[in-house]
Write a structure and sequence with these properties.
The complex is a heterodimer. By secondary structure, chain A is mainly α. Helices cover 71% and strands 0% of the residues of chain A. The longest helix of chain A has 22 residues. Classes of the chains: A mainly alpha, B alpha+beta.
Amino acid sequence: MLATLVRTLGDLQLAEDAVQEAAVAALRAWPETGVPDDPRAWLAVTARNKAYDMLRREAARPVKETAAGWFAPQVTADLAQEVLEMVEPDSVVRDDLLRLVFTCCHPALAREAQVALALRTLAGLDVAAIARGFLVPEATMAKRLVRARQKIAHAGIPYRVPADTELPERLPAVLAVVHLIATEAHAPSAGDGVVRVDLEAEALRLARLLTDLMPGEPEVISLLALLLFTAARRPARTGADGLPVLLADQDRSRWDHAAIGEASVLLAEAVHRSGGAAGRYQLQAHLAACHARALSWADTDWTRIIGLYDLILGVSANPVVALNRAVAVAQRDGPAAGLAALDGAGGMPRSHLWHAARADALERLGRADEARRELGVAAALAPTGPEQRLLARRLDALVSRGADGPLRGTPG
Amino acid sequence: MTLYAALLYYPADSYWTTPEESEWSTDYGAFGLAAGAAGVLRGGEALHPVGMATTITFAAGKDSDLVITDGPYAEAKEVLAGFYLVEAADLDEATKWAAQIPAAWRGKVELRPVVPMNGPSVPAGG
């Protein structure tokens, strides 16, 4: 409904406000009048009328002259016509939503603005919830949204679905927004949780919406598969002590096997539809599938995983991917090879994960002093409380035990 | 339709007046012809290098001393070298035209929507 109203009114802010006012009106009216036969149409018409009321109010103010002039002819539109227009077939609603997707994820908007808009207008989260999700003050998030909407209005960012020829350059931005929301859910950049369930659910919801809106698009299907594979591990990712459990140590019987099943079916469909030309999300979904299928960490097909990392690096040179590849090399070829891979790849960020992976390889090589030093650095660099505590605990274990036990470094 | 100013930025040391000028003129000629034929061009000028610039301001508000400085407002590696006014349906269409301006591959093109003068809508806040 929001998407349809945006198309008719051409103003995102106005449409959102109108829908909100209509919802409030419904909450007041329905307890007395009973719920109307077609609540959707009732809400739609009420929202549109609210929008016109707001426009009339704004028209009285000279600063908003241009916007009001734009809408004036529509204010007189016949109410019956409005009802017909608002109770539209699903296909029209779907197209409107798709337009909204591409507007929210337009490359002329900053990535953080795209993410905020997607959560606000596509997922319907309120500003406070989005601010919580990204750990910024509510006022900051509200300002970010206002600026994004102003840019859409003043810079003339269009409200339309790109032509098929433009899709290859426009679709990645849409997928990246959803992927970023999921990444923030699984690897919080701050805070005290291991997985942010709220963001994970929203990312999944958006990915499902995209597969509805653009059926048969292989990268869209692959992204949903990737998110499902990752979400399936959630039950095993947090220990009873609230600390993260590394993939190596997870109790795989606690994984959500229904989700893994759905993801596998989706991935097979994506492979079929892409005709062998795997995009980056399909490659990442294959990677996640590889872990999902392995009975244990030791049972993992590291050769296939390294091969997939090589393919992903061919598509986009990503230092985090290079780091994970080095961890896989350490598993297949031993800690010395892993250490060489970690030290060799240029431009790799010296993040807590890099230091932790190095500590792991060093410990397995019996170089306990160096391993302890690396773990100390890793603990100092870790962005979230649970990760800091996990690394500190590993350091304690290493100090008390010496260098005889195995330690494993990849994040879950 | 929205009017966009396409602001052309060039590295300060390679400018209209470098030896490749004639080659540049050909490229700009091609853009002018295409945009002119499509009826989207509403104006545009090339600017002399920033060495020719004079910057004018008041020392502290309108009633204070007028300060006139030789040179550009800001020393920068990339400088404003000219502009076009392009009328387009939306940002995507304006972007297609901007990508055909030689400055887009020799330097950068910044697209700025122009505030309509018949009904000034000044962005609030933000």
